[in-house]
Automatic annotation (TrEMBL):
Annotated GO MF terms: sugar transmembrane transporter activity
GO CC, one annotated term: Golgi membrane
The encoding gene: Slc50a1
Location of this chain's protein in the cell: Cell membrane; Golgi apparatus membrane
Similarity comment: Belongs to the SWEET sugar transporter family.
Keyword tags: Cell membrane, Golgi apparatus, Membrane, Repeat, Sugar transport, Transmembrane, Transmembrane helix, Transport
Protein name: Sugar transporter SWEET1
Regions crossing the membrane: 43-63, 70-92, 98-120, 132-152
Pfam families: MtN3_slv
Domain of life: Eukaryota
Function: Mediates sugar transport across membranes.
Length: 161
């Protein structure tokens, strides 16, 4: 719905960038975890999610009047991902790599779910929920519930989180 709004109005007004940036970081992290674990479900879902989030970011950047702050945030995300990749492939031994990457992914997931709270101050100040996306909120709840059940089924505490 946010993407439709951007395309219809040719504006990113009232749509936050940070939640989608953290979601992209989340997808990329879990994609790495899925590749390391050899889990086809994690690989497929997060590869598709990363592509879609990256496309969303590109559309957001295209219609954003202030591109510089958004580009800096994207560069910061890329620096974190590259640093994380380097850390996990070079500095972490093979025996603990999956555990540490799982913890890293869990932290990113928590960040992703916390990032929409940046809108909470705006909601309280304006006494309006206009800037909150109800479809995104519902979809996030359904997706997180699905991943929790999947993690429980696999006995994987990191996916469960």
């Amino acid at each position: 719905s946010d993407l439709r709004q951007i395309l219809a109005t040719k504006s990113v007004e009232n749509i936050q960038f940070l939640p989608f940036l953290t979601t992209d970081a989340n997808n990329l992290s879990w994609l790495g975890y899925g590749c390391l674990k050899g889990d086809g479900t994690l690989i497929t879902v997060n590869a598709i999610g990363a592509v879609l989030q990256t496309l969303y970011i590109l559309v957001y950047l295209y219609y954003s009047p202030a591109k510089r702050p958004m580009l800096l945030q994207v560069l910061l995300l890329l620096a974190v991902v590259v640093t994380g990749y380097g850390y996990f492939t070079i500095l972490v031994d093979t025996g603990t790599r999956l555990t540490r990457l799982g913890l890293f992914c869990s932290v990113f997931t928590i960040t992703m779910y916390i990032s929409p709270l940046a809108d909470l101050a705006k909601v309280v100040r304006s006494k309006s929920t206009r800037c909150l996306s109800f479809p995104l909120t519902v979809t996030t709840f359904v997706a997180s519930s699905s991943w929790t059940l999947y993690g429980l089924q696999l006995h994987d505490p990191y996916i469960t989180v």
